[in-house]
Specification:
Radius of gyration: 14 Å
Distance between the termini: 31 Å
Strand content: 25-35%
Number of helices: 1
Largest sheet: 3 strands, antiparallel
Shape: globular
Mean pLDDT: 85
Helix content: 10-25%
Low-confidence stretches: 5-16
Strand order of the largest sheet: 1-2-3
């Protein structure tokens, strides 16, 4: 029973945390970073068509325009959470 609860919880967490945009199927010369649809501290790095979730360092948010983590005061999160 406990295993079922863990599996369902993981599925829900994965469904709620989604990148904004899609990863290219083939890696290019430079890495592709996508913002998280719900959190300002999380973002995704694409590799071979798959997004891998990462988190910005303490005190920084992911800037969806420049595609890097910046100081909190320099980033507009919009509707994304500031965790």
């Amino acid at each position: 029973m406990m295993l079922k609860i863990v599996i369902v919880s993981c599925c829900i967490a994965l469904a709620l945390c989604q990148p904004v945009g899609k990863c290219p199927r083939v890696d290019g010369r430079y890495p592709v970073y996508l913002s998280d649809s719900r959190s300002c501290t999380k973002f995704y790095e694409c590799s071979n068509g798959r997004p891998y979730q990462l988190k910005c360092a303490y005190g920084t948010y992911f800037d969806s325009h420049s595609r890097i983590c910046k100081h909190k005061q320099d980033v507009t999160c919009g509707s994304r959470r500031r965790d």
